Amino acid sequence: MQTTSIDHSSEEKVIPFRPEGDFYFSKGVQAFKKRHFTKAVKWLKRAVELVPEEPLYQCQLSVIYTETGEYHQANEVLTNVLAKFGHDYVDCYYLIANNYAHLGLFQDAMKYARDYIQKAPNGDFKEEAEQLLTVLDIEEDEEEDWAFEEEDELMAYQESAFYYQERLEWDKAMPLLEDMIRLFPSYTLAKHDYAHALFQQGSESEAIALEEQSLEQEPNSLLSVCNLALFYHKREENEKATPHIHTLLNVYPIHEQQKLRVATTLAQVGQYKEAHERFNNVSKSKLKGHVAYYKWYSITLYHMGDPSGALSLWEEGCRKHPHLSEQGGPWNY
What we know:
This protein has 333 residues and is mainly α.
């Protein structure tokens, strides 16, 4: 009987396909051009994971975030590129300036626009940066005019409303906030504080409706997101609360007041680990006048397994703000 030998060397070998970053990058760009932004982010993130030393991938990811209105996330990516690759990617300065302008943070926008022009006097975005500065100068002039005319009166309202809100005296804060909304329509914080006071007084549906409307008009309103995350959480409407909480987990504000707002909101919705990280990154010296700092930071410490640290901070808060002692202690929340 004749046997047939098999020549294994002649077999066709299968080589597994392991796409590198360029494959995912091109897929992301294609999805972006088709305005399939969720898919584009997915592909670009994968490209960045595979080749973290390629700044082009990160820059393209930031462009997608900008297009979808996620300006904070875009700037986080761009700041990372600048930190790692420095002067080779000066365009990042203009892109960051543009994002800050969209967020209404005009001083930050002007700083980065000027940095871009200084570092790239003949750069691709020179004309755009100069136009942006012109617009921001006009905005700044208008804000200064308004501030000189009405600053004193507004500050008086702010201090009074803040006083009652810190003491949870919502019935006294409400009429002041209503007056602020009527007299200073450009001062948007009053509208969000009013919605919060409404909710605390039991008008929950009205408060939610106001913030949903505000978020529809201003999709990047951090204050609306904070309030809606808190409102839906307190009503145990978790499906509605979750997307707002997720947004907060991915937002890293620059200004101390906004940092505190995010930190306290995360604490109030039970995200203690993330709240702890945020509280660690706020400037205590700038927030000593806010009882919310002491209250919710100590509550966070208690839930993170540091009862002695929580009590120490609570007692410090009570010394600076005696009315805090009327709110129990960190173990009561």
